[in-house]
Amino acid sequence: MSSSPAENGITYASAGVDVEAGDRAVELMKDAVKATHNSSVLGGVGGFAGLFDVSRLVSYKKPLLATSTDGVGTKVAIAQAMDIHDTIGFDLVGMVVDDIVVVGAEPLYMTDYIACGKVVPERIADIVRGIAAACSVAGTALVGGETAEHPGLLGEHEYDVAGAATGVVEADALLGPDRVKAGDVVIGMASSGLHSNGYSLVRRVINHAGWELDRQVSELGRTLGEELLEPTRVYAADCLDLARAFPVNSSAAIHGFSHVTGGGLAANLARVLPQGLLATVDRNTWELPAIFKLVSELGNVPLPDLERTLNLGVGMVAIASPEAADAAVARLNERGLPSWVMGTVAEDSGAFTGTVDYVQGAKGVDGGAVRLVGQYA
């Protein structure tokens, strides 16, 4: 008769937690994390707390700290199904730092959290390498993190990721609704694909159609899984460059940004407009990327539902004074970020209130309104 674990003494390992595997994962990821560090990061990797020297903030007249936290959502299910884990970090970093840059803040440092059913060192290291690579693109230091093994709560091959970041902005450079004026121009910046929102809808559509992730899709030019796992574009460096080139207190100025995440374009843009103003966005100014057309057709998804759920090809929006608009678009395109003028801001007469294409306020923000017009190109 075999002995039960209790007869031999119950250990942490017999309960399903492998501390040594966690240590191996840290060794595998250490160099990638260090590569994001600059002279402001103290203490290296593995401390109880990440340390960041903020003495440079003494040069600010009135520094404001900005913070954000987020996860990746059910896109992790695609990464797990494909056993590809080194890109999901871009989705995490994009969801966090690009919320901070909306107010004009520079994201200084970030921490991450990974919960998993079983620590597989190579898999954890791949995830963190992706996070570190995205932090490098954003110019953000990855100063710490945590990997937690949760046997019995998550399956052996399941995990979830989350992160938080802190940034800083000078008070008189703060961007937001108070800056936006009638006559401003709305600039769209292309997404890299689905990014990290709406995957519950997308996965339901794909499952309903009976498509497998390894299916080659001619419209996409690659497999379905490769398209669904396309990393989120990280906009932080591009937006900061734009805000510095067109300072908020000049006549040619950037007045605000909107990160297009859950809720879609109209709802997120409405959050950064003041009450009484209406942004009119012309759908005809850009063409829907193939993946959005595919989801729409496969699932017979109504257009209003698509627009409330997915980014539909626009991942970030800038609101600029008319004097800055053309130069801002040119600057973004020169940086390799496809951008275009997609609309204008005007006084809201109230004539369109209650219509299907009209959105006013969102996510608890009683802000301005957005009206989508025309048909997609």
UniProtKB/TrEMBL annotation:
Listed InterPro entries: PurM-like_C_dom, PurM-like_C_sf, PurM-like_N, PurM-like_N_sf, PurM_cligase
Places the protein is found: Cytoplasm
Enzyme class: ligase
Key words, A-Z: ATP-binding, Cytoplasm, Ligase, Nucleotide-binding, Purine biosynthesis
E.C. number: 6.3.3.1
Pathway per the UniProt entry: Purine metabolism; IMP biosynthesis via de novo pathway; 5-amino-1-(5-phospho-D-ribosyl)imidazole from N(2)-formyl-N(1)-(5-phospho-D-ribosyl)glycinamide: step 2/2
CDD domains named in the record: PurM
UniProt domain PurM-like C-terminal: residue ranges: 181-349
PurM-like N-terminal domain ranges (all copies): 64-169
SUPFAM superfamilies hit by this protein: PurM C-terminal domain-like, PurM N-terminal domain-like
A single MF term (Gene Ontology): phosphoribosylformylglycinamidine cyclo-ligase activity
A Pfam family annotated for this UniProt entry: AIRS
Reactions mediated catalytically: 2-formamido-N(1)-(5-O-phospho-beta-D-ribosyl)acetamidine + ATP = 5-amino-1-(5-phospho-beta-D-ribosyl)imidazole + ADP + phosphate + H(+)
Family named by the database record: Belongs to the AIR synthase family.
Protein name listed in UniProt: Phosphoribosylformylglycinamidine cyclo-ligase
Chain's gene name: purM
